[in-house]
Amino acid sequence: MKTSASLGNDQESDTERGSGLVVAVDGPSGAGKSSTSRGVAIALGLRYLDTGAMYRALTWWLLGRGADLDDPAVVAGLVTAPHIEVSTDPRAPWTRVDGTDVSEAIRTREVTAAVSAVAAVPQVRAHLIAKQREIIASAPGIVAEGRDIGTVVAPGADVKVFLTADGAARASRRSAEASWSTQADQDRRDRLDAAQSGKAADAVVVDSTGLGLDEVVGIIVGLALQKSR
Questions:
Q1: Does residue 178 belong to any structural domain of this protein?
Q2: What string of DSSP letters covers 62-83?
Q3: pTM recorded for the entire structure
Q4: Residues with Cβ < 8 Å from 200, sequence gap 6 or more?
């Protein structure tokens, strides 16, 4: 199986990219990727993929088994054990592990604090990136969001967006989503996820600071419509 580095250097084939419109939305925590991506998918009649949920699901499963997440070899040895599924319906997103709905369980502070270490393991990235590419390829069109969609998972995406916002705005949004989230939590995530958070050279930067959700969705929908003409 390829490592995440080799995956990032490859160009996708038509089969890997899928036959429909692919919109890649990357950006840091708190930028509004999930709500924006779901809104764009609904507006354009596309499927939706939250890649971060897959890393969170694996982390939740590992924590539940008391695995030593500080040992990459332990994590790598267990990466294929759980069966992880995600809904691609933007109106009804869910995440399941071995048939159990963990949509809420994966958003806890414990999982959030541990997911960066799990996602940094090359075998984890290779395994989940392969699954993410399968999902994208099987969709008639999709909005995929995460931290390395335009650079690694779908470098051939039709539209690439790097969604960002200033630190204060991102911290406020994260706190609204999870009351326990603090600026320090966000800064830590940014540091730990920096290696997987690069902006694609051809991505359009959208700064959501001071913008409402509908405005941000409208900008990205406009980019997609221009591309599809």
A1: yes
A2: HHHTT--TT-HHHHHHHTTSS-
A3: 0.83
A4: 24, 26, 150, 151, 155, 160, 162
Say if 201 falls within a structural domain. Answer: yes
Closest alpha carbon to 30 in 185, 198, 149, 159:
185
The beta strand positions in the chain, using DSSP E, are 22-26, 47-50, 84-86, 95-97, 100-101, 142-146, 159-164, 204-207
Which 8-state DSSP code applies to residue 107? G
CA 32 – CA 38 distance, rounded (Å): 10
Pairing of strands 84-86, 95-97: antiparallel
Q: What total of structural domains would you count in the chain?
A: 1
- Distance, CA of 149 to CA of 48 (rounded, Å): 13
Give the model confidence (pLDDT) of 165-177 as tens digits.
876 666 566 555 6
CB neighbourhood size of 3 (10 A)? 13
- Evaluate whether residue 173 is within a structural domain: yes
Residue 194 belongs to domain spanning: 21-228
Tokens of 166: 């200033």
User: 157 lies in a domain?
Assistant: yes
- Encoding tokens for residue 9? 């250097």
Structure confidence at residue 31 as a pLDDT band (50, 70, 90):
confident
